[in-house]
Write a structure and sequence with these properties.
alpha+beta; 8 strands; 5 helices
Length: 155
């Protein structure tokens, strides 16, 4: 009886982790969950003290692949221009001024140019020291994986 109860508890705990909690206050919002909670901008990776509180969105849609361990998170993204433009338009229409527009346009323009330069972008998050690398091309990504001895791949 104790064995059945223990196995049931372990199965329950394992099934509760849907892969959205990446550890170290990092989370992944898959498309089905984004649709369920009404988040209109697709899949994201974000940092927050609580799940579904988007304090700091690090990587926007579309997240194609993700993997993680105790120290690192790796992400493959195919940037979704349509959803990115919708998010920016909604932020401006709602008066969500996270930045001073006139001072930020050159920085933002450079950021978005790099984001859409490649068809796919790679990212690495070091959860131990909160370092964030990306968007990266595949060569940069592989070089950083070697440099930091990251033993993760996209399965």
């Amino acid at each position: 009886m104790k064995i059945i109860l223990t196995l049931s508890l372990l199965l329950f705990l394992y099934s509760c982790n849907d892969g959205s909690n990446l550890g170290g206050d990092y989370y992944y919002l898959p498309i089905y969950e984004a649709e369920d909670i009404g988040y209109p901008y697709g899949t994201i990776v974000y940092k927050s003290k609580e799940k579904n509180h988007f304090d700091e969105v690090l990587i926007y849609s579309d997240i194609e692949k993700i993997n993680y361990n105790n120290q690192f998170v790796i992400v493959l993204q195919k940037p979704n221009k349509e959803l990115m433009l919708k998010r920016i338009k909604d932020d401006l229409n709602n008066g969500n001024r996270q930045f001073d527009i006139k001072d930020s346009i050159p920085r933002i323009e450079k950021k978005y140019r790099k984001l859409f330069l490649n068809g796919k972008n790679y990212y690495i998050i070091n959860k131990q020291n909160n370092k964030f690398f990306g968007p990266l091309n595949q060569k940069e990504f592989n070089n950083l994986k070697l440099h930091y001895d990251i033993k993760l791949d996209f399965n």
